[in-house]
């Protein structure tokens, strides 16, 4: 009788493969200050054939058998193989839809454009994918007797929402630090409603991040930001899931917005596993999109990644990526080099108009997705993305979390932006003839050729 596979994973230094730690150790950086990564025993995983992995993943999609109906935990062996099922904290995240943006793509000259709707998740963003893993590991550690007083994060909105929800489900205290006045009301109310301890600080994200790192170091508060490699393990399933949705055919391009840059390295990490374990035989290209107001990676890319310098990020409509000193920059640069990557930026006007154009074709985009769409449009105009390329833009959050941005755009109230496609409600007296005449005029104006 064959031995049961012994899948294993551990923390490992990026610079020294001999420095490693168990996943239940509280450690975020190596002895030299580098970030860690979760490393899997690929030799053991490779004993299962690529076709068997494909079959196993397919059988688990949308099932109710705990916890495999989750898009993350359906790939448990590739994420946290050693965790006990009863300690997994899941909202059956993942398995989000691919939107075939046929009309929008046609307008841009693309035949095969898709939007991965990661915002169609429990808290409305892709951050759920990483938080289910991190909170589950903390619950496992507590079950084994480890004293962890709380889990904490600095956030520009989406991370705090995900942490608060998953910690509430697990019964673990959550503490979130937000830059005061710099997140939407919808983002702020999520951790409030889920019972987290919420601090609104007079600083930006980088200032919040500095404080939460001190708390983690001095007060044994467990850190939930993406410098914690457990987050990356959940987020890496995005690329795996997309390729699975395409029947294991690899797109030509992934376009993803980047702020703290954990998502870029996570995307590449999942794709690496597909290649290393033989499920696919080629790599896509990755384009990272940054807001012009918070573009340190773009500036580094312009100099061939020879040097990276943090900046003071300026206010941007894409508030979740208003980050001037991203903690995962080294991982992101390494990922972009492996995937023949590019970095493009979008101005405030460009991201707002890209959102509006795409929304007119049936989408409902957050401003961060607008950054990715605007960058993608630029790459198309330059001819780098070609007409017949299959392109997947990763939409990181649901547009309903940013209705204030949408309302101001259509009321032409966005500062320093002249809305080109505003569509405010038409206010009229309640008289049939008046309404009919205006309706017919609007139909003729908007849809006649």
Question: What does this molecule look like?
Answer:
This protein has 449 residues and is α/β, with parallel strands linked by helices. The chain has a domain at 98-124 and 232-410: Rossmann fold. Helix content is 40%, strand content 14%. The chain is built from 17 helices and 13 strands. The protein has helices spanning 42-45, 50-60, 76-79, 102-108, 127-143, 158-170, 185-193, 205-219, 229-235, 237-245, 262-276, 296-302, 329-338, 348-359, 367-381, 403-410, 432-447; strands at 9-13, 20-21, 36-40, 98-100, 112-117, 151-154, 174-179, 197-201, 222-223, 253-257, 285-291, 342-346, 390-395. The chain has a 6-stranded mixed sheet, sandwiched between helices. It has a 4-stranded parallel sheet with strand order 8-7-6-9. The radius of gyration is 22 Å and the shape is globular. The mean pLDDT is 95.
